[in-house]
Amino acid sequence: MPPVKRKTWDHNAMIQAVNAVRRNEMGYLRAAKQFSVPKDTLERYVKKDVRAEDLVQFQYSPVSVSKGLLKFIMENFEFSSKHDTPRKTTFNGSQFFSVYKDAEFLRIDANVEKLLAQGYELRKKLDTVDAGKTIIVEGMNLERNTPLLIKKTVTNTPVEDYEFTFNRLMALAAGYAYENRKKFPNIQYSDAQVLGLVWDQNNNDKCKLYLSAVSGTEYMIDQFSFWPFLCGLRKFQLKKMPIKLVVKMGKIKNSEGETMASVMKQNLVTAKRIWLMFTGTSLRDLQTLIDDTPELKKLYHG
């Protein structure tokens, strides 16, 4: 009798399946079918009192890995084998982009355009579930048989480095659109339009500033530098963003430990030039905004 060939499954898919069942989002049968993992193995893992990320090890080979994408995810996100290992507290947006920029859903230009133009519909869908729960983004996969899931978060909701939130997804789409701007002649994003910005795929600065208005790009520092902070200042000036979020944005640090506000101060000539790209602004506006807002003055001059 020939040896029985063990069924293979995707490591990341099993993690998502275990979490989906534990959160009562779906039963064993549906989760096994949705994520293409063996039902018996899924049941065994769910019943163990260990985090899915620590429980699921490389016991099987990844299924349908395109150029090692999922293997790259495992290597670049530090999955701990110990339950009590301290978790990282700072989200690394540049790492997140490097890992996911080749995801299947980004290979379809219409998906990128849809996320940026209709992201509000996805946010409304997230509003229908409790914090910590995940939803499936219909028609979009990380890889074949690995659906794109995003988690609903509020303050203090635990989020793993590899998990998608609304802001992380939007920032990933923005980063991809920026790096591949020649492929996108007509990007639409409502927040950028509110700021009076116009998309022009042939103008690097216009593209960069337009996409810097996208939620979450403040963490994509390698691509967008301090420009999202400038967008935050303009949103605050127009009463479209609370000062608390602007200050939080300005405190985000790059790989050298410099805050976004300090990087902007170091590049003041560029910052002033970019500020004038917003419709109806002046250099006097920018200086007055900083000097007359105590929180910004402390952040900028502190």
TrEMBL record:
It comes from the Eukaryota. Residues 11-48 form the HTH psq-type domain. It is found in: Nucleus. GO terms for molecular function: DNA binding. InterPro entries: Bunya_nucleocap_C, Homeodomain-like_sf, HTH_Psq. Its main location: nucleus. One of its GO terms (cellular component) is nucleus. This is HTH psq-type domain-containing protein. It comes from Mythimna separata (Oriental armyworm). The lineage of its organism: Eukaryota, Metazoa, Ecdysozoa, Arthropoda, Hexapoda.
